[in-house]
Amino acid sequence: MPRGAGNRDLRAAVHAFPSPCVYRYPLKRSEPELTNKIIITCAVTGSIHTPSMSPHLPVTAQEIADAAVGAAEAGAAVVHLHARDPENGAPTQSPERFEPILRAIKQRSDCVMNITTGGAATMTIEERLLPAVQFKPEVASLNMGSMNFGLYPMLDRFKSLKHAWEKDYLEGSRDRIFKNTFADIETILTTCAENGTRFEVECYDIGHLYTCAHFVDRGLIKPPFFIQSVFGILGGIGAHPEDVIHMKRTADRLFGSDYVWSVLGAGRNQMPVAMQSVLMGGNLRVGLEDSLWAGKGRLAESNAEQVRIARDMVERLGFEIATPQEARERLNLKGGDRVGF
Known about the structure:
This protein has one domain: TIM Barrel (Alpha-Beta Barrel). Helices cover 38% and strands 16% of the residues. It has helices at 5-16, 61-74, 95-108, 125-135, 164-172, 182-193, 206-217, 241-255, 270-279, 303-316, 324-331, and strands at residues 37-38, 40-43, 78-81, 83-84, 91-92, 112-115, 139-143, 147-148, 177-178, 198-203, 225-231, 259-265, 283-286, 320-321.
């Protein structure tokens, strides 16, 4: 048999049969747009880390607002926001907790505010939607699939916890699913889209990209959409450079120029993954939601510190950071004057 004939026969056999996948998406699309302006998102407090892990984690409304404004002044065009109970730091989706945060930031900054619909894995979809529905932000986060979301290994590193809820919350992730069904995703999309809110589409694995493509095909996610690829969470894709390449290559094949790519790396993966994204034509996310650190063994003293580190690396690589207005234009946002707060 001539060299390579077997491979040709195999390719012919594969192409002779239709794909068994019910869902189809065009594979030939225009190339993603490259830009010299990098959108920095800062995730200010989140619901992953607990107050006992760092004295610098913002908890009260004033602390969260101050941290967000500081991050924006350091160069973040977008701030991703969660709220916490001011007494014990537990995650909450109470609109009453979000409102003072949003109003305080708006008075002091023109940054794009992105409200979570992820909340925490302990919450119902109805709870998670409350602040985004009431406040009609420019951007809301949107998780693209149910998954294991393992926080329990952090108990080995943080032995002394100040609040009773912290241990239960972390240990509970051993046997808890972060639920994001097709129905949940569709509910968030249709509910928030009525208010002109667009989405930070959070993809923790390759399958989440295909779920996103499903909703794009149905017209529920409209270009240009903002994909935040998440690396290094236990239960999701890893943070090896090959994982980052695989995620980007798949997104490019599925979406071409219809999307804007950003990444976040969890924990010590934060800056390496961010810089790989920049070199691959993408954007980045930092913040104390994703990592408590500013170097090996050194806690970040603020969100702004992480933004400054990322900005310095971006500029040393010859790129510029995007302003909030430039981010709005690229993401086709409705503008800060059309929110509900």
